[in-house]
Amino acid sequence: MGYTLKVNVNGKAQEDDVNPRVLLVDYIREKLGLTGTHVGCDTSSCGACTVHVDGKAVKSCTMFAVQADGADITTIEGMCQNGELHPLQAGFKEEHGLQCGFCTPGMIMACADLLENNSNPSEDEIRHGLEGNFCRCTGYHNIVKAVQHAAENG
Amino acid sequence: MAVTLQKSYSLNLPRQDVWDAIITPEVLAEILPNCKSLEPLGDDEFNANIEIKIGPIKGKFNTKLSLFDIHEPNGYKFKVDGDGVKGAMSGEGEIQLSDHPDGTGFTFMAKGNVSGIIARVGQRLIEASGKKLMDQGFKNLKQKITTVPA
Amino acid sequence: MGKLVGQPIKRVEDNRFIKGEGKYTDDFNMPNQTFAVYVRSPHAHAKINSVDTSAAEAMDGVVKVFTGQDIADAGLAGSICGWQVDFKNGDTMKEPPHPIMVADKVRHVGDPVAMVIAEDKYTARDAAELVNVDYDVLGAIVDPKAAVEDGAAQVHDDVPNNTIYDWELGDSAATDAAFENAHHVTSLSYHNQKLVPNAIEPRAALAHYDANEDKYTLYSTSQNPHLARLVIGAFVLAIPEHKLRVISPDVGGGFGSKIFVYNDECGCLWASKQIGRPVKWTADRSEAFITDCHGRDHVTDAQMAFDADGNITGLRTKTYASMGAYLSNFSTCVPTYLHGTLMQGLYTTPAVHVDVTAVVTNTVPVDAYRGAGRPEATYSIERLMDTAAREMGMDPTELRRKNFIPAFDGVEQPGYQTQVALQYDSGDYETNMDKALQVADYESLKATRDKAKSEGRLVGIGFSTFIEACGIAPSAVVGSLGARVGLYDAASIRVHPTGKVTIHSGAHAHGQGHETTFAQVVADAFGIGMDDVNVIHGDTENVPFGMGTYGSRSLAVCGSAIMKSVDKVKEKGARIAAHKLECSPDDLEFANGAWTVKGTDKSVGFGDVALTAYVPHDYPADEEPGLDFASFYDPANFVYPFGTHICVVEVDKDTGEVDVTKYVAVDDCGNVINPMIVDGQVHGGVAQGIGQALYEGAVYDDDGQLLNGSMLDYTMPRADNFPMFETDKTETPCPHNPLGVKGIGEAGTIASTPAVVNAVMDALSDYGVKDLQMPLTPERVWSAMNSNGNA
What we know:
The complex is a heterotrimer of chains A (154), B (150) and C (791).
Chain A: E1 3-9, E2 12-18, H1 24-31, E3 50-53, E4 56-59, E5 72-74, H2 87-94, H3 104-117, H4 123-129, H5 141-153
Parallel strand pairs in A: 1-5
Antiparallel strand pairs in A: 1-2, 3-4, 3-5
Chain B: E1 2-11, H1 15-22, H2 25-31, E2 35-42, E3 45-54, E4 57-71, E5 75-84, E6 87-100, E7 103-114, H3 117-147
Antiparallel strand pairs in B: 1-7, 2-3, 3-4, 4-5, 5-6, 6-7
Helix pairs in contact in B: 2-3
Chain C: H1 14-17, E1 34-40, E2 46-52, H2 54-58, E3 62-67, H3 68-74, E4 105-106, E5 112-118, H4 121-128, E6 132-137, E7 163-170, H5 172-180, E8 184-195, E9 204-210, E10 215-220, H6 225-236, E11 244-247, H7 263-275, E12 279-282, H8 285-291, E13 295-306, E14 312-322, E15 352-359, H9 374-392, H10 396-403, E16 416-417, E17 423-424, H11 429-440, H12 442-454, E18 458-467, H13 475-480, E19 489-495, E20 501-505, H14 514-526, E21 533-537, H15 554-581, E22 588-591, E23 594-597, E24 603-605, H16 606-614, E25 628-633, E26 642-651, E27 658-668, H17 675-695, E28 725-729, H18 747-763, H19 778-785
Parallel strand pairs in C: 1-12, 10-11, 14-15, 20-21, 27-28
Antiparallel strand pairs in C: 1-5, 2-4, 2-6, 3-5, 7-15, 8-13, 9-10, 9-12, 13-14, 16-17, 18-26, 19-20, 19-25, 22-23, 23-24, 26-27
Helix pairs in contact in C: 9-10, 9-18, 14-15, 17-18
């Protein structure tokens, strides 16, 4: 195999021997067992696999694990701090922003990046900001409300 | 799905020189879009390994290539037929050489059919990719001819 | 309304999902597991000459390669069709075999020919590329109507003219007479296009055969694990049912596509026994596009006849419905019993005739997809209504008002008998439409539209007043119509010694929120808290039985089974309470979590009774200990939710792009347990229906290649395609189930598609465009605006 990958995932240092062809999402799910990050497509279209690499939202199915060498990675499992839900997690529950829950982790990670860049987005800005993430259950209505809720309470 | 590719170029070389090149298997292998190897099977027949990368899809095809209607130094027709895990491809085409103010006109025409994942995922990109591949093939040809000792 | 029932209680299941702690099938692993990848046909129709697996088998890390021939040699039957619909003349439905992998001939792009099993999924994928299949490509048939013509490619040798059955419903002679005497006839022809469900979680399986116990376990992305166990056990693999456990953990959306028992998952189970190791398979998206059952694909001619006053006098439709290349489990009932039977709509149409020809084509199999048949029926009726109103110069709401079935509650007034077999349970359609007109402020909407048009902007208003039949379904009725299963449901309630409650639900939640709504119902029934109730579903070993979740049935059918168990608990509890209170059970009333002797303050709490049932020291004679009941509920009738959806669009004159600017949905799904969840179901349903109207559709070329087989190419709606939806409700209780509930899961999808198309046609009314084929892409709309001499 032969590549030593050093990353910091959800605040924990990891060092693993990985095959250079392994996708970041497979490393996260299979090597680290962090199965909250999901795979919904093969074409970077759905956003279910979104994680943060050095603070920016990235579709982890479109990146090799080795490309993240040295990076700080945050997955959905790292969003809760000291047992407190992230405002987006609370917003999604409060506003019924999820149904089957499969797109939710990627949605939350993408929304977090959105709010990082714009703490008080308009409805339009939220909708455009979510263009990279598919949800097949909610019609996006309550996801928009969840982001607004988080922006107000964040 | 059906794919049509056609593009014309010109070369600052006598037509016979261009002809000599395009009838040489090694050069032909360079012109054919993403041909990885070309093994002669017999008279004007070859086994061609073609690797296509379109958008997110990469596929290898084992194809049989045959040349026919060969008219030196005006051009020839060709036929490709083959399978790969990512689908199948088949097609017919023509290379035409003609007089051109620059020296020789070179026209590549092909009509083909692809199936499988390349058709499914790549169809919006396939003609654009094809044009890029033709450009690359022509560039290779030009390089090959100009570096072939006269 | 109870303390909890009727309240927007936040969902219990969200706690795990928002933290990424949901457990979906692909999240499970087993020691020593292997990974399977299927080798699938790139051709829509081809004869297999040979399959060479030697290079794949020689690869390091490859455990085994199986082919269609191995399946044939094992004598496995493959997937089955669960509903027999015979020909008009009584001939038996054609039922071609659907093997787990094919050995002789592939019939659609994606048909599996081999399965490569390796130590890891990367190796399995590499090795799959080395399997060399030699095909002779055959001509393909894609168009459902052309499929029946002589000379069309034959998908199956023993299905002449590709015809599975022809079928009709209603009075043909009376309907034809209505058309002969009509004052006005409105006609439309359309392709209700083939849709790809695209649940965001791809299908997956983790299969394990335990030789020591001779027992199979299958984790799978199924909407109905018990049905899967029944079909796999009894038919596909012939495994004794008690030796097969099917677990559907969290499932990432279904929309119908995960109802069916697919061959792929069965193949993993079979292979696991052959190699003696667990086998894991997870579809990638491209594979999902060519293996998950698609929806719709109806080619329809529809006509509606009117008298001079605008009363509907007749409706007739002729539909060619594609089944795809094979008959999926419920494919055959979709265009018939879920489509033809809905053609009454909510109008008093006195003569209706529906004619359906079901065909096989060289495309991905078609089966129920959110709405299943009812969206197609509603599209026919509601497109005809708005078109007829325009043709006759009437307001679309007035045309509807004139033709609505009068209100009936199903108790004082009997149910409404339609011309097409169904008897509606209860309905008040005019009140519902009036509510929607009020919520949308129709008068001002019209003024806004007319003003916009006078300014040269293209604004349109579209309606859809729909009804659907769900809560599927009375077993005897569906049995008489050809169903090979019963469609009851089951649920048990286990009251624990401390008064805490576990519900074992036969319904399976994959977004519907059962863990919340079922708990609301039971907590209220026993006067206990939400926290005191737990819902278990999705495991054949832990849930006694169930028929799963589809056809908007969970609350109406499984909820009723739960209420039957609640009643049994209360009856027995009353006997125990009566013993403790030294009275007769008849003297007791149950309220606020306690049995009280009527007219006194003597009472005993639910928890006390539960404890007594398990510590029966002072206990009624002849009474068994314990407080644990299972029930089956077979519905007396379907349930019939209805509603009014109003869509407002603006069409960009320069580009033809359609923008949905306002959407009002007033649904009536009977009593509402959790309005937050009901609204969420409507939002999602409406979005999916708008998706069909404006964006989605499987595109095939004549060779049967699916040309938009990825999320890059197949347009699914995104967040910026929609406005905020405006929802409201009327509540007409269902008279025949204990909760008075109907269904809401599919209503939005059924209603919205014609509302959107109607709105676009209204926007284009000055262009003489009568109809457009879905999806209404900018290119189609622009082209229509710029033809007809409009350029």
